[in-house]
Amino acid sequence: MITDKNMVRSLGDQPPILADGRRAPDRREISMRWLSGTFLTGITSSLLMGVALFAALDGRQQLAIPAEAFAAVDPSAPGAAPISTAKRGDRILSPNIVAKPADKTVAEVSTMIRDGEKEVVRRQPFVHVKMALAANHQTSENYPAFDPLAIFATDDADAEAPVARTGTIYGSDVESEVALKTIDFPLKGSSLTFGPSMSLDEVEENVRTNGSVLTEGNTQVASLFYVDPQRFASDAGELDLIQGLSARIVEENMSVSAYENITKQSTEYADDVIPVRRPTPIATAMVNAGYSKAQAEDAGGYIEEALGAKELAAGDVLRIGIIQKGEEARIVRATIYSRNRHVLTMAVDDKGRFVPGAEPPRLDAVATAFDDNGTPVVASGHDLPRVYDGIYRAALSYGMNSDMVALVVKLLASNVDFQAQLKPADSLEAFFSVTDESGRATDESELLYVNAKFGDAETRFYRFQDPDDNSIDYFDKDGKSIRQFLLRNPLPNGHFRSGFGMRRHPILGFSRMHTGVDWSAPRGTPIIAAGNGTVEKAGWDSGGYGNQTLIRHANGYVSSYNHQSAIAKNVRTGAKVVQGQVIGWVGTTGLSTGPHLHYELIVNGNKVDPLRIRLPGGKSLKGEALATFEKERMRIDELLGKDEGGNEVASKQ
């Protein structure tokens, strides 16, 4: 008969450990061997789970990073070991082209600006840049630290209508400045007097005098069958039918190629300059630079055989020539420099084999390959900066100034989390005016176009001046303003404290409806207007709201700002305010337990949740203004080589 005591004893081979040595063990007493096995099993399981979590969280950034974002670890770091890192996706990884000429282009563009009754058309240089934000951009300029208030707030000067210095893109090219004046066509006759008609004798005299230049191609008009050449012959001699005929000289052994538009699938040549900072095998140096293992071993084998060595020495520079068509890239040339002196060049012949070749033309990037401000290198995923820092570093290094970058940040603020970490594929494309061929923005420069890609989200907008009120704003491809109708948080530096809904009132002590959202911040923190509107009330509220400001917006929306310590002087009943304008400061007036902003949103007399209600978009262009905007957008897209779907179709220089 098996009892409970016998079953407990059967769990181990050794006798059980008794509490006092005299009584039999109960259910809570086990053998030492079973206890030790259970303990070791738990420790082992914890270690295995820890390793699995580490690989899933930390290792994920190193192993599962997108192929296009791979970059070699900086080998110049002290104590760094030779790099031989393997990458996932080696078979499909396209080469990392660092000298692609389309990254920044400067082009002369015809623009039109209105000057009184005249329209002045002139040529002006513009810069088109495509920036990979994850690249290790180097800039000597300082930029402001991240401050939400600075991003969303609007100064009084910014509230004024900006002056259009660039104008609109003109549809045709002009050689110099042209002034156009448009007047209505006279429907009831013209005030201008018509000159008298020419007599028949005057007509014949003009034809006789200018007959030599009356040609149709290479044939004289007067010699055609429907004109009698003897009618205009002079009495002195016969008409010379050969006079005025032009001769066409055709050079032999010469080919004339037709103009070809450059598209995304067009063939492009680029140079990739790879500095070698320590002795490294040739194939390894190419793999670390982003080339596939097959490409690196194929080209490296030919180079090693011709060089007579398998490794590149410290201080050498490997220059790879690439022919790229779309995502497909092919190595066509490899050159090695040692201390800025040409050592060897291998090039692909017609049969696709590497053979010794002549030294290619010198490239400045070779001499500066080891400079800190040389070619950008994409940083690895776990070293990428915040979105805010990535935008500033890239834009400043590509010639944009701080004011222009701040404008880009303001326009992207409603769609982009600037505190998030950059993703390797994040990019920014911009089109802006400059004053000369240097491609650097000045105070007179204007931003005309931006296309930002962060993760799977893409934000594209165009600058446009509304002809109805001459206001300048930025609109998406459908003519809707990129700016929000209302900001959900009028206290950018505040912290969320309490939401909309039923709650126990902290002072009254019973449950009641909380008809707004509370944002806490230190006393005196600026409060900004959630949108453009008219001040409906600015003063003390006896119902417990303390210093209160009500702003009426379009379409029946009213925003309410309560418990303020003070209200701005220029905010009074009937005053116009703009989105981002400072209207007051955080306080604790009225029924309040501490400094905070109680923000309410009222729609058609009903209080709603400001964080959950679906807000309408900003200003939308209509009618003639929308038609004008679409023409301007199409001209910009044509200049940038984009079709309506965003695919690159051409690139004009």
From TrEMBL:
Domain M23ase beta-sheet core: 512-610
Record keyword Membrane present: yes
InterPro entries from the UniProt entry: Cell_wall_metabolism_enzyme, Dup_hybrid_motif, M23ase_b-sheet_dom
Cofactor(s) the protein needs: Zn(2+)
Keywords on record: Hydrolase, Membrane, Metal-binding, Metalloprotease, Protease, Transmembrane, Transmembrane helix, Zinc
Name of one Pfam family that matches: Peptidase_M23
Segments crossing the lipid bilayer: 32-57
UniProt region (Disordered), positions on chain: 1-23
PANTHER family documented for this protein: CELL DIVISION PROTEIN YTFB, PEPTIDASE-RELATED
Protein name: M23 family metallopeptidase
Species of origin: Sinorhizobium psoraleae
